[in-house]
Each structure stands twice: as C-alpha cells, then as structure tokens.
Amino acid sequence: MEHQVTLPEMLDARERRAMEQRKLLETYHETLLCFTMNIAGPVKNSDRIRAGYEIGKKRLEDRFRAAKIHWTVREEINEKTGNEAIYVLKQDPQLIKSIAADIEEESALGRLFDMDVLGADGSKADREEIGLPGRRCLVCGRPAKECARSRTHTVEELQEKTAQILDEAIAEEEAQEAARRAVSALLYEVCTTPKPGLVDRMNCGSHRDMTIFTFMDSSAALYPYFETCTRIGRHTAALIPGETFAELRRAGRRAEADMFAATKGVNTHKGAIFSMGILCAALGRLPRRSWGNPETIARECAAMTQGLVETDFEGLTPENAVTTGQRLYLEYGITGVRGQMEAGLPAVLMVGLPVLKEGVARGLSINDAGAASLLALITAATDTNLIARSDIETQHRVVAELKDLLTQYPYPGRKMLEELDRRFIDKNLSPGGSADLLAICYFFYFLESEGE
Fold first, then answer.
1. Phi (first) and psi of residue 210, to 5 degrees
2. Distance of alpha carbon 55 from alpha carbon 128, whole angstroms
3. Across-strand partners of 136?
4. C-beta neighbour count of 400 within 10 angstroms
5. DSSP letter at 124?
C-alpha cells in the first residue's frame, strides 16, 4: 500500500528524528548512525521501498558484524514518512562514516541510502573528512548538490530511476538469497550422517560412482541455475503459474547438462534440479514476506505444477514406458516427486519438516534431527529409487520396518542408523527420492529460521 506524504508530515518526521537523536546523544554520549532512504516524491514508503531499505540494513549490520562492532542500541521506525534505523555505537565516528560511505558507494542501490553519522557531541561526520567526494546524482552521475540546486531533473525522472534501481537490486538480492539457501540445503542433505544407503560423510552408501565430493561439485554447479529459477519466477509472477513452470523446464535441461559436466556424467541431483528449481521459482513469484511460510510456498509449487502428472504420463503404455517412474506409474499408479509437488509437498509439510524442527527443539543437532527426518520421509512418500533398486515388496517391507522403529525411537541413535546403513548397503538400497525431500525440509527450515 502506497500513501502520499504531505510536507507538514515530512517536517514533523524530521523534527521527531532530530529530537530522538538529541535524546540518544544525551543518554549515551556515543556515536550515532542514522539510516534512511533517499526517495524523491510524495510516496516515501511502499513494499518496494521497504525491501530496498531491508537490503541496506542487512548490508550495514553484516559489515558491523564482520568488523566486530556491536551497537549499544538500535531503534527502528517504519511509517508512511519512511523507514528509519538509528544505531548507537561505541566507535569513532569517522570509522563508522567510512563503513557507511562504502556501502553507499558499492552499488547503484547505495545511492538511495542516506547514512548520516553524528559524533558524541552531535557534530556530523562528512564524506570529505575521510577523503571521499560528495554524493552523485541518481540520474546523470554528476554531483548531487549541483543537480538538486538547479533542479536539473524532474521528480518524475527521479522516481522512475529510483524504481528501476530498486527493482534491479531486489531481484538480484532475492535471486542470490534463494540460490544460497538451495545450495546450502543440498550440502546439508549430503553431509547428514549416517544416512542408510546414501552418500554421506562416512561412506558412499550403495553407490559406486559417486562420493560426497561429487555432490559438492554438483551443488556448486547448480548455484546459477537456482538464481535463474528465482528470476524466472519473478518476471513471470503476473502470469498464470503454469507459464512459470513451462519456462523452468527449459532452464532445467541446461542445469542437467551443467550437473553432468561437473560430475563427469554422474547423476547426483536430477531430482533436486526438478524440485528445488520449482521451489526457487515459487520464491520468485511470492513477496519476500512470504518466504518464511512453507505452506504458502508449497501452495505456489502446487499451482505451478497443476495437472503435471496427467500431462507427463498421458499416452503411456507398457510398450512405450522407458523410465522407472513411467513403469511404476503404469503398474502401481505411483506418481513420485511429480505427485508430491502437485499435491503441495504433503510428506515434507506433514512429516519431514515437523520431525526436523521437533528434533532441533529437543536439543538435537541439525544432523541428528535431519537423519530422523529422512527415515520418517521414507515412510511418508513412496520412494521410487528404493523400488528401482529392488522391487515394490522390498520397499513395503522397508517402510513397515522403519515405522515400527520410529514408533519406539522417533530419533534413532547413531548405532541404529549405522546398522540400517550396513543393511541398506548389503541389499543395494538407496532412498534417493527421500533424500531430495530431506533437502526440501532443510530449505524450508532455513527460510523459516531467517525470519526469527
């Protein structure tokens, strides 16, 4: 929602800010950093402006943490007159000003950041004091004071440029964040140990053609793909969800080629390319405030893949069925990951993620909670990889055995998991489909935790 602000309202907001600054200086006698957004025109706050502000706040606080700078107080105001953050810091004002100026200069978005630094005596630290020139104009790059004084550019020109800068910065930030979370989820999944029959930090499970390092190479190679998926979701957000999915499939074919190039022909993440790509696109379609809600993301995934099972398996016969998934669908009606995605990831939301979160809440490590989540997922969704390496009767026996085990031990200890691993390896079993669902659990967990 956008609200226009009147001149008296802006003047009142500036006076209030000045009064708050004086109060903080009198109370703490320390350096202040006051962060606001430089927005032309009568609209000083909106979802777009707030998103740009949040990026700036994160960059500033990340720099403080990197420099081991701790703020004494942080006050924040988000009103129609704009977004404001005031930090009280026990640091030299010129040091804080150099950090602030660096953030203002490091990107186009930084031109919209206004980070004023006041010393304990109330004096303002200037850019010139640390050897930097004055701010540059958004539109033409000339000294901003000159353009402001002569009113070189109209408010409309400044607003148009501001919107462009914000849109590009938000799209880039969100694509990078989604890709980071996706790759982290894949790496956490492969590093979870022990995992029966799967590659982990202890062994290669039932696999002879891959190691944990193969998965690491593959995960790194897929980072650009996950960025691309998020951007696809963003630029198709106004279209029907199915249009987003159609464009994803083209990107997915390229990602498979990148994966095989990185792994020298080994299939490590074909399932994750499908599922995690859809998840990243869903994030692109959704506003950032929805990223911490797994149910909302899952509904978007379901909307994107509506009718997928029917479309992909249409016209299948025993004669033209080629893949294991196609044969299992014809023989048993098993829909695999397509069915999970089209149904809104019920195994993840109802079983895997709750087990993961409950384990962490009990004080277990993320590794041990993840290992239990994997076993629960094997019982909650039909794992076509298990069937492909044996038969459906074996898969049924494994599920029944794990259900009995989890009834007694919801979070099995390491010895139990190692024994399961040995038995899975002896029988050449590998629950790869469940491993992909575990990665999704980690993905949701990271996104939920970010907002806490």
1. -150, 155
2. 26
3. 143
4. 11
5. B
Cβ neighbors of 92 (< 8 A, separation 6 or more) are 31
* Main-chain phi, psi angles of 255, to 5 degrees: -65, -40
- Measured distance CA(252)–CA(229) in Å, rounded: 9
d(C-alpha 192, C-alpha 188), whole Å = 6
**Using a CB cutoff of 8 Å and minimum separation of 24, what contacts does 421-425 make?**
421/194, 421/195, 421/196, 421/197, 421/202, 421/203, 421/205, 423/196, 424/196, 424/197, 424/205, 424/206, 425/197, 425/203, 425/205, 425/206
Give the whole-angstrom CA distance, residue 244 versus residue 246. 5
pLDDT at 149: 84
CA–CA distance, 386 with 368 (Å, rounded to integer): 22
Q: Which two tokens stand for residue 288?
A: 């950032």
Distance, in Å, from the CA atom of 290 to the CA atom of 215, rounded to the nearest integer, reads 30
d(CA 337, CA 94): 55
Residue 136 identity: R
Question: What six digits make up the tokens of 274?
Answer: 């499908």
Quick one: pLDDT at residue 1?
A: 60
User: Is residue 253 pLDDT above 90, yes or no?
Assistant: yes
Q: What is the pLDDT of residue 142?
A: 84
* DSSP letter (8 states) at residue 136: B
Model confidence at 139: pLDDT above 90: no
How far apart CA 226 and CA 278 sit, in angstroms, is 9
- Alpha-carbon distance 165 to 176, whole Å? 17
Which pair of tokens denotes residue 355?
A: 């087990």
Give me the residue label for tokens 């462009």. 164
Distance CA 66, CA 99 (A): 11
Give every CB contact of residue 137 below 8 A, 6+ residues apart in sequence.
143, 144, 146, 147, 152, 153
Residues 73-128: pLDDT tens digits? 999 999 999 999 999 999 999 999 999 999 999 899 999 999 999 999 999 998 87
Q: Which residues pair with 32 in a beta bridge?
A: 88, 118
- Quote the CA–CA distance of 375 and 196 in Å, as a whole number: 9
Place of tokens 């008296």: 8
What does the alpha-carbon distance between residue 242 and residue 233 come to, in Å, rounded to a whole number? 11
- What is the token pair recorded at 221? 């190679």
Element (H, E) at 420: helix 414-426
Its pTM stands at 0.91
Q: What is the DSSP letter of 143?
A: B
Summarised one tens digit per residue, pLDDT across range 191-202 is: 999 999 999 999
76 bridge partner residues: 85
Task: Report which of residues 234 and 323 the model is more confident about.
Answer: 234
CA angle 259, 352, 365 (to 5 degrees): 85
| Structure token pair of residue 447 | 């996104």
Which residues have CB under 8 Å from 410's CB, separation 6+? 355, 372
